């Protein structure tokens, strides 16, 4: 099968994006749009976002906020299609088709599902279980070969590959098997409980948003959990701060790491250095985001344009899949 490079990824519009989303995914999206212009599809996955309790009146604003984060982080609509999942209805339709070839056992094995089932014991809907099939549809509709995500999504991607193989085997070659593309920041941890990943659904003190005010960055980092710093081992909290620093200032990170190895690291210094660096690094982001927020019409227009580009590819693939399955 022909395997032209195609890139697709998605983020849920469930709140402002944080350092984990940026270092694990979005930063990579920007690099890939420059390396592979015109073949990147970046999606705001609002259909995924409604699998957890949410406020309908706020959904559109959240989609808009996510679009602002995408654009301020450097996604360029001239190089990549930026669009809203629910507006390309082919996603839901392909999902139904893929539903019929996905074993329930594979879905029940997903770590994220098991985790959500534990955390929202009173709100387990079929959407939570079927969530990875919709993600597979997102990817396969564009015949994506590469999917830039954080480490937590690798298992879902494995399932996407399994679904693609099953479809190809049953109905004939249709979908390439997509590969994950991970970064150094593929797993950024929570500031308050560094054994868990940083997440939007956690409490505010545990993450830093990309437009966080400098004072707030400072105070969140100050309170970040780290060990005493004398054992020569950084521990998960200290290591996490170093991983963040490594991406934006590798040389300084190396120095702090050497101090740690010698048992001489001063966490207060690392935290205040990192706070300054983050403030500097995301300064232009904050400015661009504010500017874009003042032009909502232009932002919606651009999403509409992205949706039209996405729909062209999605409808051709869906048609092919339906043909192979005998519908047309
Ligand atoms: P969240 O878990 O914060 O709601 P999403 O599920 O919307 O975030 O994830 C969007 C993207 O960001 C995915 O590619 C995911 O792998 C990545 N991501 C999320 N949290 C982290 C993290 N803590 N470290 C690295 N990447 C992350
Ligand atoms: N499930 C992903 C997450 O929670 C979001 C997502 C939906 C996605 N569809 C996708 C990621 C397609 C990559 C490709 O982060």
Structural notes for this entry:
- By secondary structure, the chain is mostly helical.
- It has two domains: 7-186 and 296-324, Rossmann fold, CATH 3.40.50.620; 204-285, Tyrosyl-Transfer RNA Synthetase (Orthogonal Bundle), CATH 1.10.240.10.
- Helix content is 56%, strand content 6%.
- The protein is built from 14 helices and five strands.
- It has helices at 19-35, 46-49, 56-72, 90-99, 104-108, 111-119, 126-140, 154-171, 214-222, 235-248, 250-261, 267-281, 283-293, 296-324, and strands at residues 7-11, 40-44, 80-84, 146-148, 179-181.
- The strands form two sheets. It has a three-stranded parallel sheet with strand order 1-2-3.
- Helix 8 links the parallel strand 4 and strand 5.
- Helix 4 crosses helix 7, helix 10 (235-248) runs antiparallel to helix 11 and helix 10 packs parallel to helix 12 (267-281).
- The longest helix is centred in the C-terminal third of the chain and has 29 residues, at 296-324.
- Bound molecules: adenosine-5'-diphosphate and tryptophan (TRP).
